[in-house]
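thread: overnight batch results

M.L. [08:02]
morning all. the overnight job finished for the chain we discussed friday. pasting input first so we're all looking at the same thing
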Amino acid sequence: MINSTAMNVAIPSLSEGFNVPFETLQWVITGYMLAMSVTIPLAGWFSDRFGSGRAFLYTVILFILGSLLCAIAQDINQLIVYRIVQGLGGGMIQPMGIAMIFRLAPVNRKGQVMGMLGIPMLIAPASGPILSGWLLEFISWHWIFWINLPIGIITIGLILCFLLKEDTLQKIETNNKRLDVGGLFLAPLSFVLLALSINLDLDAWAVWGMGLIGVFLLVWLWLHETRHPNPLLELRAFREIRFRRGMIVSWIQYIALNGSIVFIPQYLQHFKGYSPLDAGIAMSMLAVTSGLLMPVGGRLFDRVGIRPLASSGLGIIGVSLIILSQVSAEANGLYIGSIIGLLGIGMGLCMMSLNTYILQSAPSESVSRVTPLTSASANLVIPLSIAGLGQFLTLRSRMSGVESSGQPITETMTAYSDTFLLAAIVAIGGALFSLLLKSDPKK
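M.L. [08:03]
and the structure it wrote out:
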C-alpha cells in the first residue's frame, strides 16, 4: 500500500530520469493496477488450493521479486513490465490477509481485531507520499522499490515462523480445489476492461466500447458464478440481505470518502497556497484520527453491532464535508486540519466495522471467496467515484464561466464547495440507509 501511493509522487522524477512523457509513464501506474485487477479474483481459489499461509507466502515472494526487478530497471519499458509482475503479487496480498485474520480472530472479538487491522491500512497510504518525497529528494527513485525488500524479508520470516509452523491453514475439500475456468476468464477480463475505461484518457468511442464490453462480461460473470458449484467469486452471497445491504453501504462510503479525499489536496494547494508536502501533512490528520478511532470502532462493533457505527460514522463524514464546503479563503490551517480530522473520525468508526459486518454476513466457509469480491468491487467503485465527482467539478467550473486558465478564485472555490457538498449528500444518504442494517450479524 505504501508502494502504490508512493509512485504518484515519483512520476515527475521518473519522467526526468527516463526522459519520457507522462503518457508513457502513466503505464507504470496503470500496468500495476491492471495486474491487480487480474489477480484479485484469484485470491480465494489460490488460498483454498494451497492453504492460506502458503498462498500468502507465494504472493509476498512474487511482490518482492517484482520490487527487486523494478529497482534495477534500466529503461521505462522494463519498469512497466516489472510493475506488472509486482502487481500480480500485490493484488492478492490484501484480500488474502483480511480473510486469514478474520478467520483466525475469536468470534467475540472479530470487530476489535479487524479494527486494529485498519490502522496500517490507513497509515501506509498516508506515509507513502511523505516517504517517497524524502527518498526522491535525498536518494533516488530506485529506493521506492528497494525499501520493499527488508519489509518483505521480515514478512516472509514471520509467515514461516507462525503461519506455516502452526496449523492455522483452513482445510478445503479436494473437490473445492477445482478451478472455475469460466470465472478465471470472465472476472479478470471484465475488471480490466472496466478499469481501463475509467482510468485511461482515450477517445470517447474507445472508452464507451471498453466500458460496454466490460459491463456485458460482468453480467455474464454474474450469471456464471451464481450457477457454478465452486465459483471463483462468491456472488451468491448477495442473496443474503444483510450482505447485500452491507455492500451497498460500503460502496456509498467509498463514493463519499474517496471521491472527496482526492480533491482536498488540490483545494489546499490551489487556494490555500500549500506546498505538496504541507498538503500531505494536512491530509495525515485523516490517517491519525481514523487510526485512533478504528480500534474503538472495532470494540464497539463487538458490543453494539453495525447500525449505530455505520449511521454515526457516515453522518460525521457528511457533516465534515458540509463544513468543508463552507470554508472561506481566509480559513487558517488549524481549522482546516480539524475538519480533515473530523472526516477521519467518521471514517474510523464505520470503515472496518462495515468490512467485518460484510464478512460475518457471508457464509463462514466462503470468506476466502468473499474478500476478493469486496476488494474487486472497491477497485471499481473508487475510481468511478473519483471520475464522477471529477466530472461534476469540471461541469460546475464551466457553469461558473471558469476556463482552464486564469480561473477566478471565488468561482473555482464555489465549484469545489459544490463537489464537497454533493459528496456530503451521498454520505448522509448512506447514513440513513445504514439504519436498515441489522445490528447483530453474528453467526
